[in-house]
Structures are given as structure tokens and as C-alpha cells.
Amino acid sequence: MSDLTTMMNIGKEMEKKLISVGIVSSEELIEVGAKDAFLRLKQKYPNVCLVHLYTLEGAIHDTEYNRLSEDTKKELKEFSDFLRK
Fold first, then answer.
1. pLDDT at position 81 over 80
2. Range of the domain at 79
């Protein structure tokens, strides 16, 4: 199992939050996926925002979060907006 901080975009603070919602390794984050991980975080930490979702998606694909495709960003934004309803 690899530490979460070995993934791009994941620092100590995000690692702590992910561990607190039951995601303890990079393999687990990849298996769970960005949307489900974000949903878990949102339930425990209501202040997480769209950038956190981008960060998770970027980590899973080994891409800087600000380099995600526009289509991916649009899809993630729609998901985030849906959660706020």
C-alpha cells in the first residue's frame, strides 16, 4: 500500500482528511474514485469545495489538478453542483 502523499496533489492535510473518512492508501483512493471520495469528505467536512474534487481527480490520474481537461472539469463541476441541491 502506498501513502496518499506519494500521489500528485495530495499533501499532509488532504491525507489526514482522507484517512478520517476511511481512505488510507493511494490504491484505495483509485478504487473508490474521486467522486465517492469527495462525497465522503463533503459529509464530514462541509467546507470542501470544487478544487478538492479536482485535486482528487488529478491525484488519481497523476495530473496536476489545474491541468485536467475542460470536459473533466465540467463533469466534476456538475457533480459538485448536484450535491449542493
1. yes
2. 4-83
